[in-house]
Amino acid sequence: MEINWIQIVGIVAAICTTGAFLPQAIKTFKTKDTKGISLLMYSFSTLGIFLWLVYGLFLHDTPLILANSITVLLCGSILVLKIKHG
User: How far apart are CA 14 and CA 84, in angstroms?
Assistant: First the structure.
């Protein structure tokens, strides 16, 4: 399988967007402090990321599938902590 420039852009975008959730996830897991996190924003964000994952599955797009699988787990975990700890 040959990787083209479009795939490279997708992979870099996937790394950036998935990586953007890591600091918040790590901080939230460590402190359990979710006061500064918007429940509505994380609800919509988790739903949107899940839908991007479904979209990637329909297209058989590996960067979309991998990035959004990881990101929905991170974002969804933060959302669960927000619901659990307010």
Answer: 28
Whose CA is closest to 20, among 52, 54, 49? Answer: 49
pLDDT digits (tens, 9 = 90+) for 14-55: 899 889 989 989 999 999 899 989 999 999 999 999 999 999
Residues 50, 40: Cα–Cα separation, whole Å: 15
- Euclidean distance between CA atoms 37 and 21, whole angstroms: 13
**Assessment of whether the complete model's pTM goes beyond 0.70:** yes
Distance CA 74, CA 82 (A): 12
Q: What is the DSSP letter of 1?
A: -
Distance between CA atoms of 81 and 25, rounded to whole angstroms? Answer: 10
Q: What's the distance, CA 25 to chain centroid?
A: 10
